[in-house]
């Protein structure tokens, strides 16, 4: 056994091969990865491009020249604007509520050993891995059986339900890695458990709670399947798009889609940079 | 007093969220099971009569769509592994400091609404679209050739939409591999292919299984791709359930169909959880 197996080697390539063979194999993989990324980005590119399409007919299908005019008229379709607002409000409420509930579960699972934690784990795993169709169908079955009217409230209930487990998983992952000695130090200095939690522990898990909120928001605003089952006559942004696919989508949808895309990417990049800076400072 | 408080703390923390999951995840399943055994119609209401015939009717009427969905999802899963493994492998072993950037690029589609990006594919694949139009102009494909409405288009859409669910778990598994283990294999005279087969592949397998679970289940129950990109000959079980619930209000049959689909998928899910545990899936969810 050589020395290099005993010490972690600084090289990133785990497999030592002939120089030329490694080069070709690696560059082929590199090319392949980029081809996949390009394939993933093509529809996004098309969506953005058609937000700038100077279309005149009902269909925004073929390219007719570049224009900014749809950006000025983005809120001119009343139903669509209303649908976008509905989506935003539901996303804000459901992300905050699910973050609060999910943080409770995540913290408890990460910190304590208690009876029922196994069951809770199974339930969380089930909500994350069970198909949206089944969740939507079963919720509708409940609402129909209980004679509950469908609408924004039932959508919000459903969104909170499927977001809780994701937030809990994120928070638990953070709580598990916390250094207990910091809390012990606080206790040694005379802080009550309550003070210790809010002054020491909570600030440490706050980044995880924050990413939980962002994920829950993203899940909610994008959700189509569960929403479709629980909406009744209320229309959210994805439902509006679904409803008008047959007649053809107006360019305003592309503009709004582009705006949501840009906002999402911006938030993701900013939080990523900030968390990296935070790591460097620590 | 304080000790009691400490022991009760986790229950208080879990209570609101746990109650919510009980009320709106567990109980709805029971409601659906009950609905699937009821008889009646929308106007006169439903009565619980242990009407097992709903199940036999559902299987008799829609086994074609059910089997088709499972086949599409299976083909899609195989394609996903072929697409995702090399990508995850390259990022995990050669991504260097750019790893987060590459993962971010792979997640970009998630910043566009699921429905919207599927419709975007329809815009691309349509007869007048940027792919077929030039080919037809040049006479390279016959006028009667279509991409939309084919099983290939539906499976393509499924693969596109669920690729990140396969890449991420495989990446997580590969990233965990200690390079020293591979080194050791090489030192013991394994050639690269053998080291890959005997060391990397077995260690990556849990990630592949997690990916299969996370993509097969949503693909088999999807109805957006087959609705937007497919035709009447590619109808999937999700479309049937969706239209029975929301269009024809045939709740008992719809509930029975949902249960059959869920039973098929649940067997897979729980076999997975039993054999491999819930850790990998949770880890990917937490990313």
UniProtKB/TrEMBL annotation, chain A:
It holds the Pfam family BPD_transp_1. The keyword Transmembrane helix applies. Its main location: membrane. It is found in: Cell membrane. Coiled coil: none annotated. The chain crosses the membrane at residues 29-52, 83-110, 122-144, 150-171, 200-221, 253-273. The keyword GTP-binding does not apply. It comes from Paractinoplanes globisporus. This is ABC transporter permease. Gene3D superfamilies: MetI-like. PANTHER family: PUTRESCINE TRANSPORT SYSTEM PERMEASE PROTEIN POTI (PTHR43848:SF2). Keywords: Cell membrane, Membrane, Transmembrane, Transmembrane helix, Transport. Residues 84-271 form the ABC transmembrane type-1 domain. It comes from the Bacteria. Belongs to the binding-protein-dependent transport system permease family. CysTW subfamily. It is a multi-pass membrane protein.
From TrEMBL, chain B:
Belongs to the binding-protein-dependent transport system permease family. CysTW subfamily. Residues 66-272 form the ABC transmembrane type-1 domain. This is ABC transporter permease. It comes from the Bacteria. Coiled coil: none annotated. Its main location: membrane. Gene3D superfamilies: MetI-like (1.10.3720.10). It is found in: Cell membrane. Keywords: Cell membrane, Membrane, Transmembrane, Transmembrane helix, Transport. It is a multi-pass membrane protein. It holds the Pfam family BPD_transp_1. PROSITE patterns: ABC_TM1. The chain crosses the membrane at residues 12-37, 70-91, 103-124, 153-174, 195-217, 254-273.
């Amino acid at each position: 056994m050589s020395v290099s197996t005993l010490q972690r080697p600084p090289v990133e390539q785990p497999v030592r091969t002939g120089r030329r063979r490694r080069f070709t194999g690696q560059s082929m993989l590199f090319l392949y990865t980029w081809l996949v990324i390009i394939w993933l980005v093509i529809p996004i590119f098309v969506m953005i491009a058609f937000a700038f399409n100077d279309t005149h007919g009902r269909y925004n299908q073929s390219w007719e020249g570049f224009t900014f005019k749809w950006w000025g008229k983005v809120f001119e379709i009343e139903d669509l604007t209303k649908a976008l607002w509905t989506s935003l409000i539901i996303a804000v409420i459901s992300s905050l509520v699910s973050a609060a509930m999910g943080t409770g579960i995540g913290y408890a699972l990460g910190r304590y050993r208690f009876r029922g934690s196994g069951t809770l784990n199974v339930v969380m795993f089930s909500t994350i891995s069970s198909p949206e169709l089944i969740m939507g169908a079963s919720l509708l079955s409940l609402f129909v059986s209980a004679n509950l009217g469908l609408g924004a409230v039932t959508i919000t209930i459903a969104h909170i339900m499927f977001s809780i487990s994701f937030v809990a998983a994120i928070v638990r992952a953070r709580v598990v890695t916390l250094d207990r000695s910091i809390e012990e130090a606080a206790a040694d200095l005379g802080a009550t458990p309550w003070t210790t939690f809010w002054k020491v522990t909570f600030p440490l898990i706050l980044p995880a709670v924050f990413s939980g909120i962002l994920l829950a928001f993203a899940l909610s605003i994008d959700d189509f399947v569960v929403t479709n089952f629980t909406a009744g006559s209320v229309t959210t942004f994805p439902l509006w798009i679904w409803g008008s696919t047959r007649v053809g989508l107006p360019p305003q949808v592309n503009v709004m889609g582009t705006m949501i895309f840009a906002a999402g990417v911006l938030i993701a990049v900013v939080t990523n940079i900030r968390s990296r800076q935070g790591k460097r400072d620590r | 007093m304080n000790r009691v408080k400490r022991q009760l703390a986790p229950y208080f923390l879990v209570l609101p969220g746990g109650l919510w999951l009980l009320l709106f995840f567990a109980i709805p399943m029971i409601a659906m099971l009950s609905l699937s055994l009821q008889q009646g119609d929308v106007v006169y209401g439903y009565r619980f009569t242990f009407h097992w015939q709903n199940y036999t009717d559902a299987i008799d009427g829609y086994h074609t769509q059910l089997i088709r969905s499972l086949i599409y999802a299976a083909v899609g899963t195989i394609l996903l592994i072929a697409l995702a493994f090399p990508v995850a492998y390259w990022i995990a072993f050669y991504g260097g400091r750019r790893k987060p950037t590459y993962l971010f690029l792979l997640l970009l589609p998630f910043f566009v609404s699921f429905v919207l990006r599927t419709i975007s594919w329809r815009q691309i694949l349509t007869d007048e679209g940027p792919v077929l139009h030039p080919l037809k102009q040049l006479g390279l494909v016959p006028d009667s050739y279509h991409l939309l409405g084919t099983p290939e288009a539906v499976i393509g859409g499924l693969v596109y939409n669920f690729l990140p669910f396969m890449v991420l778990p495989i990446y997580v598994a590969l990233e965990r591999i200690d390079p020293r283990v591979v080194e050791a294999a090489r030192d013991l005279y394994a050639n690269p292919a053998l080291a890959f087969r005997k060391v990397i592949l077995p260690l990556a397998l849990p990630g592949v299984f997690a990916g299969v679970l996370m993509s097969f289940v949503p693909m088999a129950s999807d109805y957006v791709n087959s609705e937007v990109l497919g035709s009447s000959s590619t109808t999937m079980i999700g479309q049937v359930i969706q239209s029975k619930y929301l269009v024809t209000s045939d709740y008992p049959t719809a509930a029975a169909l949902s249960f059959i689909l869920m039973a098929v998928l649940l067997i897979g899910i729980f076999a997975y959880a039993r054999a491999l545990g819930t850790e990998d899936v949770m880890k990917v969810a937490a990313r």
